[in-house]
Amino acid sequence: MSATKARQVRHNTAVQVLGRIGMGCYGLVYLLIGYLAVRVAVGGGGQEADGRGAIAEVGSTAMGGVLLWLLAAGLVAYGLWQALLAAVGYTWIGKRRSRTVKRVTSGVRCVVGVSLGVYAARVAGGAGQQGSGDQKQQEFTAWLLGLPAGPFLVTVVAVIVFGVAVGSVVKGVRRTFEQDLDLSRLPSGTRRWVERLGRIGYVARGFVFAVVAVLVGFAALTNDAARSGGLDAALRTLAAQPFGTVLLIVVALGVAAFGVYCVGAARAQRG
């Protein structure tokens, strides 16, 4: 697809609507991750507190099959919308370097959205859960460690994830996420809540990603893929610390806040 055609598709009304609905679905996943993390904090059990666990939680409801298909469609739509933004989006960002970073970030969100959507569709179609997020993370880490200079490569991954974590925290503290929103589309009361939830959510999400980076770093130092892990492992690591229950509940509420932010900001998201 040419750049001109991609821009035309990006501005298509149906694409915009589907992308925003998809952003709401993406937010729902984070909201459920926050809920599952609270369950981990108070009881230590339940579904794994990650994207796959959130999808499994949806599937466990009375109308799970129907909801999973809707969630799958929404997540894939969100991923494809992010693919368009990665290709030709963020024209409102003046600095070329900043625009490139945002496009790369959208590319990552595209992969996450589509992969979660496909996973939801597989579960809805009766394929069952195909392993946990932590297991997939450990398998990927083990594959990297098996390559020449494997520990170095895993260290690079840890540094990249930590960079994403710092970027998320900075985004929340400095409120730079507002660059990608047209807040005039929202009522004044909703606008204030979106701003607040965005700040809390981005900081909390960055904190969790920082823990993920530490786990991946330990895997590199010890040459042990089992030390690695994803969101669920990071949240359970927090729970194991002194005052871990309180700490995890605070972080979980922050992660849930990011989910609500995505739902509330979908209408205002620049596309």
Summary of the model, kept short:
The chain has helices spanning 3-10, 13-43, 51-59, 64-88, 96-124, 133-145, 150-174, 188-222, 231-239, 244-265.
Explain this structure to me?
The protein is mostly helical and about 270 residues long. The chain is about 75% helix and about 0% strand. The chain has helices spanning about 5-10, 15-45, 50-60, 65-90, 95-125, 135-145, 150-175, 190-220, 230-240, 245-265. Helix 2 (about 15-45) runs antiparallel to helix 10 (about 245-265) and helix 7 (about 150-175) runs antiparallel to helix 8. The longest helix is centred in the last third of the chain and has 35 residues, at about 190-220. The radius of gyration is 18 Å and the shape is globular. The mean pLDDT is about 90.
**Number of helical segments?**
10
Main β-sheet description: none
Total count of strands: 0
What's the oligomerization state? Answer: single chain
Q: Provide the gyration radius in Å.
A: 18 Å
Global mean pLDDT: 89
Q: In one word, what is the shape?
A: globular
Run of helices and strands: HHHHHHHHHH
**Structural class, from helix and strand content?**
mainly alpha
- Unreliable residue stretches: none
- Content of β-strand: under 5%
Helix content: over 70%
